[in-house]
Amino acid sequence: MKRVKNYVLKKAQEISGKYEFRDHLKFLNEAQYYSKEKIHKIQLNKLKKLVKKARNIKFYSNYFKEKNIDPSDITSLDDLTLFPVMTKAIYRNHFPKNIINPKSAPKDLYLNSTSGSTGAPFKFYMSKKHRGYTAARVLSFYKWTGRDYNDPILRLWGAPNLDLKTKLFQKVIENVTLIDAFDLNQKNFEEHFGEIEGKDFSLLESYTSAAYEFAHLLKNNEKNLRIPSAILSGETLYDYQLQLIEDRFNTEIYNRYGCREFGAIAQECSEHKGLHITETDFIIEVVNDQNEVLSEGEKGNIIVTCLDNYSMPFIRYQIDDIGSLSKDICPCGRELIKLEFIEGRVSDMLYAPSGRHISLYYFALLFQGRSDYVHEFQVNQREDNLDIILKLVTTPKYNQKIEKEIISDIKEMDSSLKVEIENVNTIPREPSGKKKYLKKI
Ligand SMILES: [Zn+2]
Fold first, then answer.
1. Count of structural domains, the chain
2. Ligand 1 centroid to 139 CA: how many Å?
3. What is the pLDDT of residues 130-188, one digit of tens each?
4. Are 157 and 183 contacting, i.e. CB atoms less than 8 angstroms apart?
5. Separation of CA 144 and ligand 1 centre (Å)
């Protein structure tokens, strides 16, 4: 069995181009239990290497000259603050010529881009090694949930046009049954359910909204599934969604955090008290609006340094998410620090006419105790006058009294908000397959 497994992994790595994926998976499986000291040593060594590579890049060589910095000045992890916080706008201004490594071989430059669901698409390059490492992190995180090698996975995801290599990787390495997140509705529920019923999945991997939607379909059709673990990702996970997903899938939910630029970064362990960061691959900081580093527990902008992408280094990249760090000792035995989420993404903030910033999180709270009346919501805010059109997918139980209560609760949140409620049949997905719960119109 072991020989077969090794052969299959080797082939899949070669064909998919996910370079060094196997070695890194092995490393991650061990490194998750390294001591803090050992992790910091690895981080510092990797950071030094990264900075040396960055010297070849025009943006950084200019910056080093201007600030009189030499890569040999990096002697501790605190020296990371010698570097500027990089926004997407800075990368865009310098892309590609001044921000990619001219020494990278063309075949080592894999062009990727974010879906642009929170603005214009953002283009960037990944090295082969970084792609391989990204795939390895996902597989390592699967294992945290108890999923063993080759155990079947049910994936609800928005990826209608996969290339052959990706399909092969999914089939051979991940043993995935894929259901398109765009394709979840009452009409084809029976067909999907027939396909997955009776299959012994050990893991559900899904966009949060897709798992929630499928849980609703299960409820409406009086069905249940039994999948021991679920990794939810791609969108903020709200408490009101959690319960229904847990109940209908009879599952234990693991929240995972990541993004297109870096893949999976952090995930909950079985203690479910924050998301452990893969610190051997990333350094995560939290800063305030003046880019000053905040202490543990303080909420601010998440800043990511990816230690392995030499083709286009991301050093102190502002990912546009808000969170805080926790260094609590975790009973699971991992000393990897944790990300805690309080209010979700920067793009999930809306502005009240009073000048207050309000997180979408507070809207999600409105529906927590009202799931019998409201399935789903989307806040549409007009950019000209800040009026809100709250689109609701309601159940037959929904009534005028509930509507009045919702409006009054919103007014309580901020009395300057003007709200109109619109009943809709569905909240459509964005081209990426994700759902957007706040839209500026
Ligand atoms: Zn833990």
1. 1
2. 17
3. 998 999 999 999 999 999 878 999 999 876 667 777 777 788 778 999 998 877 888 89
4. no
5. 10
